[in-house]
C-alpha cells in the first residue's frame, strides 16, 4: 500500500546538498522524464529531417494527453511556452479600444502586469488595478471586481492562484460577474495544473497555465485554453508555416523550435498518477502548513492569513526589520543558496515581506526544519 507521507527525492536529480523549498517558481523535472527528453534530443540530432517530419504528429498526441489531464475541450487547447506567452496571445487577440481599461488586481504576476501595460500603451488604453487584501474572502473579492467594472473595461486579467501571495481566486464567480456585463476574462492559471481539478472549466475567454510547476514537466510546457468565440482569431505569437492552419494545430509547430519538452511532458503526468497525486497532495498541504508554522516560530513572526491559500504554498512573514526591494530580495535568495544551502523565494505584498514556501513529493518536514535553523542567522 502506498505511503503518501513518504518523500520521494530519489525520483528527482535535485542537488542533495541543498534544501529545495521553491518548487513554485521553476518546478523540478523527474529523472525519468529527463531521460525521455534526452532520448528525443538524441533522436532529433541523429536525423533532423526525419525528426521534423514526425514532430507534428508527436506534438499533437502530447497535446491531447495534456488537454485530457486538464479535463478541457481539446479543440480549444493549444501548447505555449509558458503562461506569460498565453496571456500575451490572449491580449493580442482581444479588442482593446483607445480609451478603454485593462483591469487587474494587486496580486497580478509582474510579467503579466508588464504585458497589460504594453497593450495599454499600444492601444491608447489604461491599466486599472483593484486592491484585494490578503484576508479577503470570496464575497469581498467578487464585490470589489464587480464595483470596478464599467463600460470602458475591455478585459479583466486575473490570477487563479497568485504567484505573489499564493491566494486562490474564485474564478467561476468572477467569470460570471464579468460576462454579465460583456467583459472578457483572461485567467492566469500558472500554478493551477495539478493543484486545482479541471482548472479551465469555468468558461473564461482565455485560460493559461504551466505544466512545468506542479505537474513537473520539462520547462517550456504550458497550455492555453481558448473559448469557442475566439478560436478563429487566436494566433501564435510567431508567424510561421502554420499561419493558415486551424486552432489548435496552428500552434503545434513553429519552425525549428525544440519540441522535446512538449513531447516528453506526458511522462511526468504518468509519474504523478503512480504517486497517487490527489492523496499525496492532501499530505503536502498538511506538510506545508506545519512547515510554515515551524519557520514562523523560528523567525518570531507569523503565517500570513490568506483567505484561500494554494494547496502547496504558504507565506511566512519576515521580521519587520527586513524590508525587501526587488534587488535586495534577489540578493537574499542568492545568499540563502550560497550560505545556508537553501533554495527559497521571497515576495512582497502591501508593504510586507514574506518567504513563500512550497512543497512537493520530494520534500520532508526536515527540509523546513533546516531552513528554520539557518535562516534566522542569515537575517541578523
TrEMBL record:
Keywords: Aminotransferase, Pyridoxal phosphate, Transferase. Residues 59-367 form the Aminotransferase class V domain. It comes from Kribbella deserti. InterPro entries: Aminotrans_V_dom (IPR000192), PyrdxlP-dep_Trfase (IPR015424), PyrdxlP-dep_Trfase_major (IPR015421), PyrdxlP-dep_Trfase_small (IPR015422). The keyword Protein biosynthesis does not apply. It holds the Pfam family Aminotran_5. PANTHER family: AMINOTRANSFERASE CLASS V DOMAIN-CONTAINING PROTEIN (PTHR43092:SF4), L-CYSTEINE DESULFHYDRASE (PTHR43092). This is Aminotransferase class V-fold PLP-dependent enzyme. Signal peptide: none annotated. GO terms for molecular function: transaminase activity. The keyword ATP-binding does not apply.
